[in-house]
Amino acid sequence: MGYTDQRFNVNLSILFTELPLLERPAAAAAAGFAAVELWWPWIETPTPDQSELDALKKALDDAGTQLVGLNFYAGQLPGPDRGALSVPGEESDRFRANIDVAADFAASVGCKALNALYGNRVDGVAPAAQDELALENLVLAARAADRIGATLLIEALNKPESPRYPLVSAPAAIEVVDRVNAATGLGNAKFLLDLYHLSMNGEDLPEVIEKYTARTGHVQIADNPGRGAPGTGDLDLAGLLDRLKKAGYEGWVGLEYKAGDRPSAESFEWLPRPQRAAN
């Protein structure tokens, strides 16, 4: 078992970042991958010019890579922000402006998963008020995802690296998933299970897999400590992915790790080339 029967994709917002955005799909394809995912690439704007969207679509198409995951606008990410949808004022407005832009772009490239990062707690704003705003915005996002036949993903991050992010455990993220599904009746909100973040929180990973695989829409991995490639830390990622498979998970596994000081293309030696293009 191990890594042999997984469907892997490369996150082009953390790997191949030594290249300009439009060159990354071809680089992933050259490394043997047929599928990729992205954080929202335009951190300065939720509504880029159509020409920029078209250029990214062309880069994906020309490389023969399938986009399988896309974040909604999330503020400065990478950077201090961890999403925008629960942040009152301008950031919430920017998230709303992005919803249909992101969904329409996802539809144009056949992407079926949209990740909505919750956002940090804000000084002077009651957590309950932020949670109420978050639910309003997540309902809008879930409806937009449903319009294009996509899943809305809710992700738990880790407290050491994201101390102001409120969803820092699997149960906390699942609670939001349930709240969104109850509010929309659509059932298309799912958990984004990131083994690196959950391990940083000290969670019991086999227990999380056993409890929540049925409600998981996407998986991401990196080793811990260090957030490097599998084999650079202490996590039994092959064993954990086996558990996911046995629990019924058949979706994508996003490679969301840091290549370190070497070119990204050299960070995949742990995964034999024939296993990279699974589809």
Helix content: 25-40%
Residue stretches low in confidence (pLDDT < 50, at least 5 long) are: none
Class per helix and strand makeup: alpha/beta
Terminus-to-terminus distance: 17 Å
Average pLDDT level: 97
Order of helices and strands: EHEHEHEHEHEHHEHE
Q: Strand order of the main beta sheet, please?
A: 1-2-3-4-5-6-7-8
Task: Tell me the radius of gyration.
Answer: 18 Å
Largest sheet descriptor: 8 strands, parallel, barrel
Query: Care to count the β-strands?
Result: 8
Tell me what portion of residues adopts beta-strand conformation: 5-15%
Structure explained in plain terms:
The protein is an alpha/beta fold and 279 residues long. Helix content is 36%, strand content 14%. The protein contains 8 helices and 8 strands, in the order βαβαβαβαβαβααβαβ. The protein has an 8-stranded parallel barrel, surrounded by 4 helices. Strand 3, helix 3 and strand 4 form a beta-alpha-beta unit. Helix 1 runs parallel beside helix 2 and helix 3 runs parallel beside helix 4. The longest helix has 21 residues. The two termini are 17 Å apart.
